[in-house]
Here is the input.
Amino acid sequence: MSRLDKEEQEILEGFEAGELQRAPDIDDRKARHQQYAEAMFKKDARINIRLSTKDLRGLQKKALAEGIPYQTLVASILHKYVEGRLREDR
Here is the structure.
């Protein structure tokens, strides 16, 4: 069972058939994108915030349901907000 969507499968098939080729600077690109990813996920700052007990318990329950630590959930929510990917339902 493939986890690729239709477009990804077409790209893979084209590559395997020799219709597509790697970029000539693939090693440089991979290294650059690796650096981007490391910088994005680097957690080098600490914050302390006060929450109501009710909100903290709610976060912990949501995190438990997702199978992740609640601090990771909070960091993910904040990251999405900063990136403009967190939208409020109205």
